[in-house]
Structure formats: structure tokens, C-alpha cells
Amino acid sequence: MSEKILVAEMPGKKLYRDGDSAIKEFDADYSKANILNEALNQARVEETDLCIPKIRAVQVVDGKWSIVMDYIEGVTLEKMMADHPEKEDEYIEMFVNLQRTVLSKKVPMLNKLKDKMQAKISATGLDATIRYELHTRLDALPKHYNLCHGDFNPSNIIITADGTPYIIDWSHATQGNASADVARSYLLFYLNGKEKLAEKYLSLYCKKSDTAKQYVQKWIPIVAASRLTAAKKNEEEFLHRWIDVVDYE
């Protein structure tokens, strides 16, 4: 009988390893709807050919909901980048190629990214004029139906011993415009204090996908506003700078 080992602790949830299973255990007051939606998102993405952990069960133990899935043995791309800074260009290229593969997929049963962002903008508490401007901009942007991860960053990529990259944490997955997902990854690099890497990432993505940087930049105030609803205190000022849409262009 294997012993359950705590691997990581996040707000509202803990991640355990139990043999070849990973158990994401949620606090008793965590939204059941959000837990079930996360499991459903992941199950739907499993139907693509992407390498992701497979859901094994959704269960309740001692009043707490858990999602049980494959445990992926390996090292995060974030750690590899920290341990081998000399390989930064190689790793950021791997990151961009992997993101482009994700964005090439279609998962038609997922929630729509635009709907999710409209709701998040409404919930920000921003001034009504800014909310109106953001809603209007979002409405005007093209509607696409690419698979968007929603939190695509190097800590959510695990490289196994044989070099296979697995993508984890599909709780924010939607279908929508690829450039929104790219804008999100760009902001996440900035929020982690990696401004130069953010710019290198964006330049490489735009070059490889033949996407105008200005097009991705149109998404940045919208994505920053959607992040604001769950932002840490130390992120708020930074996000507000990006949301200042009146002066943005």
C-alpha cells in the first residue's frame, strides 16, 4: 500500500502523490461546480492527442472533493529553465512550439473564452467607463475556436525522463482566440519578474505563427482585466497599468 505524499499546496487545494496517481484535494468550501468543471475540461482535452494526465476518478473523501489523475514523473520546464539558463533559447522555442500545438486543436464542448472574459470584466469592480471600453474591445475582436489552456506557463509543463512534455492544469481551458492565450502567457512571464523573457517569447511566437505583435497586444488589457478578479495584492498595480486602455494605444 503506497503512502499519500503532499507534493504542493495552493490556495483552496492540495496536491498529493499516491503511487502512480496524483490526487488534487479541494477544501470543503471549494465550489463543487468549479471542481466538476475542471475535471470535465480535462476529460474533454484528453480526447485530443495531446500528452496530458488522464482523469481516473472524481471522488469525495471526508467531505472533500478530489480529482484523481495520472501522476506524471518528471521536471517542470520552469525548473529546467532556472537550472540551465544557457539553454533559455532552446527551452523558449520548445515552449512556443508546444503552445502552438495546443492552439491548433479544437475541443468544441469547452466553454467560450469570450463569454468567460466578459463575465470576468463585469466582476472586476473597475470604473464603468473602463469596463464599457473593455467589453467593446472584446466584442470587436475576431471569434475563433482554438483550444486555449488559460494558464500556459513553464510551471505547467512537465518533461519526463524520455523527453516527452506533458501539459498539466486544465482548469482554465476554453475555446477561443489563440492570441488571447498568448497574451496571457506574456503577462504571466511579466508577473513572474521575467520581462526580457516575456518579450523574447512574444517575438518568437509572433514570428513562428506569422502573427502581428499589435494583434496580440490588443488582447493584453482584456486579459489583464480578467486576471484582476483572482490577482494577488502585489499584482494589482501592474495589471492596472495594462488595463489603462484609454492611453494604451
Q: How would you describe what is shown here?
A:
By secondary structure, this protein is an alpha+beta fold. Helix content is about 45%, strand content about 20%. The protein has 9 helices and 10 strands. The protein has helices at about 30-45, 75-85, 90-105, 115-120, 130-140, 180-190, 195-210, 215-230, 235-245, and strands at about 5-10, 15-20, 20-25, 55-60, 65-70, 75, 145-150, 155-160, 165, 175. Strands 1-2-3-5-4 form a 5-stranded antiparallel sheet, with helices on one face. A 3-stranded antiparallel sheet has the order 6-8-9. Strand 8 and strand 9 (about 165) form a beta hairpin. Helix 6 (about 180-190) crosses helix 8. The termini are far apart.
Key descriptive features of the protein:
249 residues; alpha+beta; 47% helix; globular
Number of helices: 9
The profile of the biggest β sheet is: 5 strands, antiparallel
Mean pLDDT, as a whole number? 94
- The whole-angstrom Rg is 18 Å
Structural class category: alpha+beta
Q: Which range best describes the helical content: under 10%, 10-25%, 25-40%, 40-55%, 55-70% or over 70%?
A: 40-55%
SSE sequence, one letter per element: EEEHEEEHHHHEEEEHHHH
Structure summary, number of beta strands: 10
Unreliable stretches (pLDDT < 50, length at least 5) are none
- DSSP strand (E) fraction? 15-25%
- Kindly report how far apart the N and C termini lie: 60 Å
Overall shape: globular
Strand arrangement in the largest pleated sheet? 1-2-3-5-4
